[in-house]
Amino acid sequence: MEELGNKLFNSKFLENWHCHFHNLKAWLEQNRIGDLLLTTEMDEELVKWIGIQNKIKNKLPAELRNKLAVLNFDLDQKGDIWEHKCRQLALFAQENGHINLPDGTKYEALKDWSLRQIQNKPYLSESQINKLEKLGIDWDLTFTREQRWNLMFLKLKEFHLTYGHCQVPQKWERDKTLANWVRVQRTLRAAHKLRQDRESKLNSLNFVWHIQTLYDAQWQHYYQQLKAFFQEHGHCRVPGKYKQLTS
C-alpha cells in the first residue's frame, strides 16, 4: 500500500497539487470578506480539483491535509462537480425541452459528462439517479466505439487532474479497467495501430509510452537521494528509517 502511495503521490502529483492549491488560495483571497464567501463563479477545473480533494482527503499526506485545513474552506461547498454539471444539464433541458445535447464544442464537455453518468449508473446514488431521470436521461443509450474511447480518455484526464501525471499503476485495484486501457494504448502505439488523433490527445497529458521511462526516472530520483545522503554523511550505509532507499 505504501509503495502504491509513493507511485501516485509522487513529485508530479505534488507539483500539480501545489499549483491548484495556490489557485484556490488566490480565489479565496479575492472572494472572501471575513467569514463571508462571495458567490463568484469558480473556474471549472478548480471546482473539479476541489471535489477530488474532498474524495481523497483522508489519503493525502498529512502536510497537504494541514495546508487545506489552514484555508478554513469547506471542500463540500464548491467541490461538487456532479451537482455543477447536473445544473447545467437542467438549464439546457429548461431551454430546449430535452437533454439531447448537440455535437460541437459548446456542449462537448456536458455531453461527455452525461454519457459518463449512463456508463457509471451502478456507482450513482439513488438521489443522483432520480435527478437524471427527472431530466429524461436514456439509460439504454448504446455507445459507439468512439464514445467508449473518449469516456476512458476522460477517466484518464480525471486521474491526471488528481495526481498530476498519467502513471496509472499496472495493477490498480481501484480501477482495473483504466489500468488495462492505458496498457492497451501503449500496446497499440508500439504496433503502429493507434490513431494519430488519439495519440495526440494522450500526449497532451504527457502520457508515458514506455514503462522503462518510468523506471529510469524513478532510478534517477532515488540515485539523487542516495547521492545527497552520501554528501551529508560520507557513506552509503543508509539506516532503516529511509525506507525508500533501503527497499
Low-confidence stretches: none
Structural class: mainly alpha
Globally, the shape reads globular
Strand content: under 5%
Radius of gyration: 21 Å
The total of beta strands comes to: 2
Q: What is the helix fraction of residues, given as a range?
A: 55-70%
Strand order of the largest sheet: 1-2
Structure annotation, total helices: 13
| Main pleated-sheet profile | 2 strands, antiparallel
Number of self-contained structural domains: 4
Give the overall average pLDDT: 80
> Which series of helices and strands comes N to C?
HHEEHHHHHHHHHHH
Spatial gap, N to C terminus: 14 Å
Task: Describe what this molecule looks like in 3D.
A hairpin with a 2-residue loop joins strand 1 (32-33) and strand 2 (36-37). This protein has 247 residues and is mostly helical. It has helices at residues 2-8, 11-31, 44-56, 62-71, 75-78, 81-96, 108-119, 126-134, 145-163, 176-190, 196-203, 211-233, 243-246, and strands at 32-33, 36-37. The model has no long low-confidence stretch (mean pLDDT 80). The longest helix is centred in the last third of the chain and has 23 residues, at 211-233. The two termini are 14 Å apart. The protein folds into 4 domains: 2-79, no CATH class; 82-142, no CATH class; 156-209, no CATH class; 218-246.
